[in-house]
Amino acid sequence: MAYSKIKLPASATIIILFGFVLLSLQLMSSATQESSELGEMYSWLLVINTLGSVILLGLVAFNTYSLVRELKKKEAGSRLTTRMVSLFVLLALAPAAIVFYFSVQFLHQGIDSWFNVEIDRAMDDALELSQSSLNQRMTWHIKQTKQMADQLRDKSEALIAMEVGSLWGDSGALEIAVFSNQGRVLASSSINPSDILPHLPDEQIWLLLRQNKEYFAFDPGDNDEMLVRIIVAIEADQSRFLQVLYPIPVRVTDLADSIEFAFIRYQEMNFLRDSLKTSFSLILLLVLLLSLLAAIWVAFISIRNIVAPVKELVKGTQAVADGDYQQQLPVMSQDDLGFLVESFNQMTRRIARSRDETRAAGLEVENQRAYLETILANLTAGVISFDAAFYIRTANQAAYRILHIPVSHFVGETLSTLATMHRELADVLNAIQGLLEKADDIWEQRIVFLGPNGRQELLCRGTPLFSQHGARTGAVVVFDDVTDLIQAQKNAAWGEVARRLAHEIKNPLTPIQLSAERLQHKLSKELQDGSAEFLQRGTRTIVQQVEAMKRMVDDFSEYARPSKKQVEKINLVDLIQEVMALYLPSGIIFSTAFASGRVLVEADPVSLRQVLHNLIKNAQEAATAPCRIEIKIAKVSRNNTDYVELGIYDNGNGLNAEQIETIFDPYVTSKAKGTGLGLAIVKKIVEEHGGVIWVDTSYNGGAGFLLQLPVFEFGNFK
């Protein structure tokens, strides 16, 4: 239905236009003939056709301008329209120009052939032949008339009247009349009885008759017939004249008129030869111009209608390229282009349906991915995934908390690249990289390394990933920081050992001590001086060692026993300054990286004093003279929680890697005296307060310890 609405008006317009053009050209062609009634309208027709040509030229120019603008704007279908119009104009102009050229040549040669020497001679001969035929007839009638005049000479008027009727019957003339030189009719006879008076000559004929004594000429008759009028004198004195009217046959008259008209027309055409050439050439040019312009204009309309579906297809394709998959184009015809448009509509519908399905599937995948990311983000274990070439694809937040490096920022890199950038983790990263490259099945490995917080132990599990076809697609590594877990297990084991020691060792020590003292008391008087001194020295040693073992068991029991702390809000700065004041008399040089302020923490002041005393005593014993201890306080954030970080540094010899690994284990010490429980107790107290403590491995001027505690209030402090 849409096709008929668009095409029928255009077709009707084209038909009407060509009808007017053909009618105007036909009228103009007819007007070139002189006999045509349209000859006077030739100029008007020429103006009308010229005006039509100008209008068509304007339409073609307007369409050309519109097409050029579309080309500049790079509108859809403009290039195809240009190619089709150019091809049509070329195909129409080339044969039309050839036909026009040869038509003009044939026309000029044809017109020139009308006026050659043979035709000129033929026309002259025909005219001369016509005139000779008429002159011969005229001579015969003159001779016949003179014979009749001789028969009437010297006769009376009565005899003449009688003779005229006889002569008329024998001569075959239309009329015979005898009249005097005064114009009085003496006798007459005519083929028409109703004619009373003969056809008398007029004044001009009388004048010629008096001068020449005779008159003969061709005169027109009453019914547009041609007559031969002959007047001769009967008497020598010209007193009486004989007039005879002879008829000329119609055929002879027509032939003579035709020859005369043709001759005159030929002379006119010969005179207007160049004008005829110009006129016919102009008509032919107008025919060509009107035809070409009309054809080009029609070509513009037709090609635009043909290209219209292509434009719609291009616009639809651009819309689809921009993501508009709901684009539907109108089907304007049932031809191949209509089939193409319908196929495009089906394609967009299928694409839209596929897009919706893909979007739904993608949304489902995205939800699953977000779900998995949420799970991975909230896992305490670090998870890192790799592609087939062992390049990092994803990493969760726990990997950052455990390794203290933003692994997710190194997506597309290998663990070896991270190892070169973070030397402190080179051992663990290279170890995991080696396990990834060698393992073809699930693997598990415990890796110990020194991290920023001291000794750390990771439990790593790796799983290679394979496609449905068995090709390796990547791997996943899951690792946990089991340092605290192992330490808790160690603490639990030591606590169990302490309880057993308290039960199994401490109880027998008292009878041993009492028995030794009783032996000393009873035997010292009975033995000689040397033996008594030996006994006293031995029993004293036994008692001292038993006391030492009791103290050791008590300390060990204290370490294993849960603390009974009384938590309150204390100012950590004031507490540190109070403890520092106790050691100033001993010659320790303190340097602090904080000013007076308020840093409130919730803790047991007695336990924190014990922590500070143990750390300062260890620094004092390890430092070289003079002893210098530096104390720093800073605010840090970890896992959305604020902590106060306390650093204590000495100028001693520092710690080696082996000492750093076991520095917080019970009964581990490098000093000549001591039980080795000091730092173990410190670590236990700090952890009971929700904090952490580790060796600052980045400090090279001696030994440094960092501990972090949850802060309640961090006031005006720097």
Summarize the structure.
Keywords: ATP-binding, Cell membrane, Kinase, Membrane, Nucleotide-binding, Phosphoprotein, Transferase, Transmembrane, Transmembrane helix, Two-component regulatory system. With 718 residues, the chain is an alpha+beta fold.
Description:
By secondary structure, the protein is an alpha+beta fold. 59% of the residues lie in helices and 17% in strands. It has helices at residues 2-31, 42-73, 78-114, 117-152, 157-171, 203-212, 250-271, 273-321, 336-378, 397-403, 415-421, 426-438, 483-523, 529-560, 572-583, 605-622, 657-662, 678-688, and strands at 175-180, 185-190, 214-220, 226-233, 240-247, 382-387, 392-395, 443-451, 454-466, 472-481, 568-571, 589-592, 599-603, 628-638, 641-650, 692-695, 704-710, 713-714. A five-stranded antiparallel sheet has the order 2-1-5-4-3. Strand 3 (214-220) and strand 4 (226-233) form a beta hairpin. Keywords: ATP-binding, Cell membrane, Kinase, Membrane, Nucleotide-binding, Phosphoprotein, Transferase, Transmembrane, Transmembrane helix, Two-component regulatory system. The chain crosses the membrane at residues 12-29, 41-63, 84-104, 280-303. InterPro entries: BphY/WalK/GraS-like, HAMP_dom, HATPase_C_sf, HATPase_dom, His_kinase_dom, HisK_dim/P_dom, HisK_dim/P_sf, NtrY.
Features:
718 residues; transferase; alpha+beta; 18 helices; five-stranded antiparallel beta sheet; transmembrane helix; HATPase_dom; 18 strands; single chain; 17% strand; disordered N terminus
Q: What is the helix tally?
A: 18
**What's the total number of strands?**
18
SS class: alpha+beta
The radius of gyration is 71 Å
Q: Approximately how much beta-strand content do the residues carry?
A: 15-25%
Distance between the terminal alpha carbons, to the nearest Å? 86 Å
DSSP helix fraction: 55-70%
Main β-sheet, spatial strand arrangement: 2-1-5-4-3
Indicate the low-confidence ranges by residue numbers: 1-8, 34-38
Enzyme class: transferase
Keywords: ATP-binding, Cell membrane, Kinase, Membrane, Nucleotide-binding, Phosphoprotein, Transferase, Transmembrane, Transmembrane helix, Two-component regulatory system
Organism: Methylomonas albis
Subcellular location: Cell membrane
